[in-house]
Amino acid sequence: MADETNEKASGGWLAKLKRGLAKSSAKLSDGITGIFTKRRLDTASLEELEELLIAADLGPSVAAKLAEALRRRRFEKDIAPEAVRAALAEDIAQILAPVARGLAPDPAARPHVVLVVGVNGSGKTTTIGKLAQYWKTQGKTVWLAAGDTFRAAAIEQLQIWGQRAGVPVVARESGSDSASLAFEALEAAKAAGADLLLIDTAGRLHNKANLMAELAKIARVLKKLDPAAPQDCLLVLDATTGQNALAQVETFRQIVPLTGLVVTKLDGTARGGVVVALAEKFGLPVVAVGVGEGAEDLRPFEAAAFAQSLVEG
Ligand SMILES: Nc1nc2c(ncn2[C@@H]2O[C@H](COP(=O)(O)OP(=O)(O)OP(=O)(O)O)[C@@H](O)[C@H]2O)c(=O)[nH]1
Predict the structure, then answer these.
(1) Of 206, 189, 208, which is closest to residue 114 (Cα–Cα)?
(2) Residue 8 C-alpha to ligand 1 middle, in angstroms?
(3) Locate the Signal recognition particle SRP54 helical bundle domain: which residues (predicted)?
(4) Is 12 a residue whose pLDDT tops 90?
(5) Is residue 184 over pLDDT 60?
(6) If you take atom 29 of ligand 1, which residue's CA is the nearest one?
(7) Is the pLDDT of residue 207 over 80?
(8) Residue 269: phi, psi to the nearest 5?
(9) Which of 18, 42, 86, 279 is most buried when burial is the number of CB atoms within 10 A of its CB?
(10) Is the CB of 293 under 6 A from ligand 1?
């Protein structure tokens, strides 16, 4: 019965993922059809494929690798677009497999503290709400901390997500010190024996020094209560920014030790290929992807499902 429910749930998610990646996969799939209909796999068609992959935000390095892998297998042979799509899906899944870590809190940590960082509007608050909901359905007890004290709307938004998911939210008025709020939240979550504490943060990147000081202070203060906290530091990236997401990883990993990435808003863009570029460039775990604004629109990342949905739709 449990298996049946899981199967139903994952089938539902796969359909959602495919729908979410439809813009990206249409671009890739139609492009491949355009290049390889009644064509051989030769230098010219491979160059066009490489350009298509770059235009779809997989990045020049991944594009060159994928084209080379295809050349080695099928050079100077006739090849149908379906075969190109299948080969690419397989090779992309191999690039993604090492970063597909999924979402598993450390059972020894009580709570497992997740610091969520990212630029304004990347989807941090929404992602925390979705993660809370996801983990709640996995039977975990979750606490939230409204650490983005810079923006009153972010605090309210997190409170709404907390109510929706039925999980406690530790919040103060805007302008409060986010590190002391994080401390208070960890104390409360510890006392309650919670499995997870998710901490929202502000993302004012225009002042890197301030941001760095604030995030460092939060981490330092958490360590007073648990030297291993935060167990995770997730960077939330908006897929619609395309290659700019790579620059954001560079910036944030100088500020905090990142343990994983969450890529959001894949549903609104044809730039889903950026997930592959991120995986290849940084090797950081892609913990989850977001394909919509609803609570059910974020799930643990799976390499093969993502690769197939990206290329074959
Ligand atoms: N379509 C779509 N929209 C999303 C997704 N994730 C987040 N959003 C929307 O993106 C907008 C910004 O999300 P927030 O969660 O407020 O972003 P934030 O990073 O917390 O922003 P600040 O609070 O300003 O730091 C909201 O309107 C969300 O509903 C997604 O996967 N798909």
Answers:
(1) 189
(2) 27
(3) 17-96
(4) no
(5) yes
(6) 293
(7) no
(8) -150, 160
(9) 279
(10) yes
If you average pLDDT over residues 264-277, what whole number do you get? Answer: 95
The response to whether 122 counts as a known ligand-binding position is: yes
Q: CA–CA separation, 173 vs 161, rounded Å? A: 17
Position 177 pLDDT exceeds 70:
yes
DSSP result, 91-125: HHHHHHGGG-------TTSSSEEEEEE-STTSSHH
With contact defined as beta carbons under 8 Å apart, do 295 and 130 qualify?
A: yes
Q: Which CATH number fits domain 112-302: 3.40.50.2000, 3.40.50.2300, 3.40.50.300, 3.30.310.50?
A: 3.40.50.300
CATH 1.20.120.140 fits 2-99, yes or no: yes
Please determine whether the domains at 2-99 and 112-302 fall in the same fold group of CATH: no
HEC states along 153-193?
HHHHHHHHHHHHHCCCEECCCCCCCHHHHHHHHHHHHHHCC
CA dist 125 to 60, 111, 116, 199, 262, Å? 32, 19, 9, 9, 12
For the whole prediction, is pTM greater than 0.90?
Answer: yes
| Nearest residue (CA) to ligand 1, atom 17 | 123
Q: Where are the domains of the chain?
A: 2-99, 112-302
The response to whether residue 299 sits with its C-beta less than 6 Å from ligand 1 reads no
**Structure tokens of 241?**
């920014």
Tokens encoding 173: 């008025």
Give the residue from 180, 126, 189 showing the smallest Cα distance to 154: 126
Q: Which of 40-44, 208-212, 226-230 has the lowest mean pLDDT?
A: 208-212
- Nearest in space to 232 (alpha carbons), one of 117, 135, 143, 132: 117
Cβ of 265 less than 6 Å from ligand 1: yes
**Cα 270 to Cα 10, 147, 221, distances in angstroms:** 23, 32, 40
Tell me the pLDDT of the chain averaged across its residues: 91
CA distances for 232 relative to 9, 18, 237, angstroms? 26, 28, 16
